[in-house]
Design goal:
The structure holds 2 protein chains of 2 kinds. Helices cover 0% and strands 46% of the residues of chain A. Chain A is built from no helices and 9 strands. A 5-stranded mixed β-sheet of chain A has the order 1-9-8-3-4, with no helix packed on it. In chain A, strand 5 and strand 6 form a beta hairpin. The radius of gyration of chain A is 13 Å and the shape is globular. By secondary structure, chain B is an all-beta fold. Chain B contains no helices and 11 strands. In chain B, the strands form 2 sheets. In chain B, strands 2, 4, 5, 6, 9, 10 and 11 form a 7-stranded mixed β-sheet that branches. A 4-stranded antiparallel β-sheet of chain B has the order 1-3-8-7, with no helix packed on it. Chain B is globular and about 40 Å long. Classes of the chains: A mainly beta, B mainly beta.
Chain lengths: 112, 114
């Protein structure tokens, strides 16, 4: 399974945009880029995923580099509730079971 | 919308005891997964299933067994619990077809083995 690299931690201010980076230089053409987040004492929560094009949903935006070797999760206006660990994961769409292998993620703190 | 339901939410076991954790999903997902999460660490995949009657090993399968007799249920068992199995266990499910949505996770089972 291809690996991802994320910063261990990031800080942001409330109501400001947040850009969470992820490097995946060994990504294959069949890998989808998934983002999940885990709030304290809760199970992980799906945020967004994409293959090649940038994606938007009600929670966030996903910007994928043209060579697909990196991506950025964008939270447009951070709130205190967005403080969580954010995981960037590659999922091979042809891998039976579509397993998600979690790394350490980025711990995002949001200051009021 | 119940999503993914895990039972029980908490359990304390003595070393050597056995137990089963049950996961139920109502989204008609084909795939189901069991993860464990130790304090301060990311999730590790224990076992997974791509359909009724089929299971496969993940990253850390030793000491666990699983069963998927019905599409909506995925059972995780410990035959002889050990203190090293103290952890929070998460069940998840997803569609087979990529692109439809991501995984849905349960709220977790906190297991302590003494």
């Amino acid at each position: 399974d291809a690996k991802t690299t994320q910063p261990n931690s990031m800080e942001s201010n409330e109501e400001e945009p947040v850009h969470l980076p992820c490097n995946h230089s060994t990504i294959s053409g069949t890998d989808y880029i998934h983002w999940y987040r885990q709030l304290p004492s809760q199970g992980p929560e799906y945020v967004i995923h994409g293959l090649t094009s940038n994606v938007n949903n009600r929670m966030a935006s996903l910007a994928i580099a043209e060579d697909r070797k990196s991506s950025t999760l964008i939270l447009h206006r951070a709130t205190l509730r967005d403080a969580a660990v954010y995981y960037c994961i590659l999922r091979d769409r042809y891998n039976q079971g579509g397993k998600l292998i979690f790394g350490q993620g980025t711990e995002l703190s949001v200051k009021p | 919308n119940a999503g993914v339901t895990q039972t029980p939410k908490f359990r304390v076991l003595k070393t050597g005891q056995s137990m089963t954790l049950l996961c139920a999903q109502d989204m008609n997902h084909e795939y189901m997964y069991w993860y464990r999460q130790d304090p301060g660490m990311g999730l590790r995949l224990i076992h997974y299933s791509v359909g009724e009657g089929t299971t496969a090993k993940g990253e850390v399968p030793d000491g666990y067994y699983v069963s998927r007799l019905k599409k909506q249920n995925f059972l995780l068992g410990l035959e002889s619990a050990a203190p090293s199995q103290t952890s929070v266990y998460f069940c998840a499910s997803s569609y087979r077809q990529e692109g439809r949505s991501g995984y849905t996770f349960g709220s977790g089972t906190r297991l302590t083995v003494v």
